[in-house]
Amino acid sequence: MIDLRSDTVTQPTPAMRQAMFDAEVGDDCYGDDPTVNRLETHAAQRLGKEAALFVPSGTFGNQLALFTHCRPGDEVIVGDDSHIVWHEAGAAGAIAGVQLRTLDSDRGVLDAEAIRRRIRVGDDIHAPRTGLICLENAHSNGRVIPLDAMAAMWDVAQRHAVPVHLDGARVFNAATTLGVDVREITRYADTVMCCLSKGLAAPVGSLLAGSAAFIDMARRRRKLLGGGLRQAGVLAAPGLIALERMTQRLHEDHAHARLLAEQLAALPGLDVDLDSVQINMVWFRFTRPIDNASLMARLNAAGILANPPEDDLMRLVTHWQVDADAVARTVAVFAAFLRQ
Known about the structure:
Its EC number is 4.1.2.48. By secondary structure, the chain is of the alpha/beta class.
């Protein structure tokens, strides 16, 4: 099967499976799992932070950041199209007890002046405290936020002493596209979450990184949330491979996404947003009505998994198990479907 539903579907590489088998383990709640310790130390260095914490998922990492940065009743400034708003099940209110103050984004880019206007100032007892600003890079729409935009938002936060959390689920994809070390992005955030289980292909896990004091507090709150880990080295071992090796090949996924986008764009009946193909995601619309069930049946019959269009908009995502041949097979199915 060719699975284009997301890069969350990536299966661990053979090297990862072997590393899981060979992993040296201990009890992470005691702090004596050597493989977890190596992963957290390496992740902190790669992300440019003092310390890091292994967590079960990206949503867990983001929500742990909100829970650790904020007090109940605080307000969090975040883009209205962000993953935290759309895809984390309302956890900010349920776990951290915060409210989200959303603002419009330009395809993922937040305006620094708009952020400034939303920061609560003064001691009005009627107003919530601005506890955090959340950014996202790469954005879940597949676009990469430029460094100058990151710097402008960071400057506003610094001037008002409001911490910044970066949802960096695909931050290594963003760094690949920008052609910079990932620390050139994470320097504009106090804390960052990055996923190991998306395009980096680890089977489970994400990382939350920040200052040593912040991570100490987050470790306690991870336990409160049921995230205390035991012999987690079997999961940390593929995470090390994800950081050390899989980050070095993301340009291949980006190239396959570009190839897929350009070949789909040549088909009549499709409007492909080529400007948005900045990482490993391809977005396109059908320019005439189609039968979704018929399309999905055709793809499934050809051994291709994809999420169906929503309001005629469809997304395909490349990853390490999608090569040029898979792209060609996929395009051929769409071409045949659109000819009928």
